[in-house]
Amino acid sequence: VQVVESGGGLVQPGGSLRLSCTTSGFTSDDLVIGWFREASGKEREGVSCMLRIGSTYYADSVRGRFTISRDNDTNTVYLQMNSLKPEDTAVYYCAAELATGWRTCPSDPIEYPYWGQGTQVTVSS
């Protein structure tokens, strides 16, 4: 089982980045995918998540600026991040869980057993 993120980097305030999360090795392709972030000295927080079809979640701090989407043919979930702010600086993690039983995607990291290695996003001028 693998969860692999990519797409982080350094961007100026107001800029955009797109993160990708690709999963492989799962027994089912019906997965819940969550994006989380952990800023230095802070707890890991939920950013966004989605089921295979429908049901998305956005944290208040990113709603209207971030968009989650997925390509089920390639088992890839994207997080498009626009109008980035310095407070968005963090290590971003993708996490996965089998979707069985979930009607809405969970935003609590404890619900996700499979995690990627993280990708650094730095918003700075």
Report on this structure:
The protein is globular, with a radius of gyration of 14 Å. The model has no long low-confidence stretch (mean pLDDT 94). The chain is mostly beta strands and 125 residues long. The chain has strands at residues 2-6, 9-11, 17-24, 31-38, 45-50, 56-58, 66-71, 76-81, 90-98, 114-115, 119-123. Strands 2, 4, 5, 6, 9, 10 and 11 form a 7-stranded mixed sheet that branches. Strands 1-3-8-7 form a 4-stranded antiparallel sheet, with no helix packed on it. Strand 7 (66-71) and strand 8 (76-81) form a beta hairpin. The protein starts with a strand and ends with a strand.
Record the SSE blueprint.
Elements: E1 2-6, E2 9-11, E3 17-24, E4 31-38, E5 45-50, E6 56-58, E7 66-71, E8 76-81, E9 90-98, E10 114-115, E11 119-123
Parallel strand pairs: 2-11
Antiparallel strand pairs: 1-3, 3-8, 4-5, 4-9, 5-6, 7-8, 9-10, 9-11
What descriptive keywords fit this protein?
four-stranded antiparallel sheet, single chain, seven-stranded mixed sheet, globular
> For the residues shown, what is the average pLDDT?
94
Percent of residues in helices? under 10%
Return residue spans where pLDDT drops below 50 for at least 5 consecutive residues: none
Q: Structural class, judged by helices and strands?
A: mainly beta
Number of helices: 0
- Tell the overall outline: globular
Biggest beta-sheet profile: 7 strands, mixed
Q: Indicate the proportion of strand residues.
A: over 45%
Number of beta-strand segments: 11
Order of helices and strands: EEEEEEEEEEE
Radius of gyration of CA atoms, rounded to a whole number: 14 Å
Distance between the termini: 38 Å
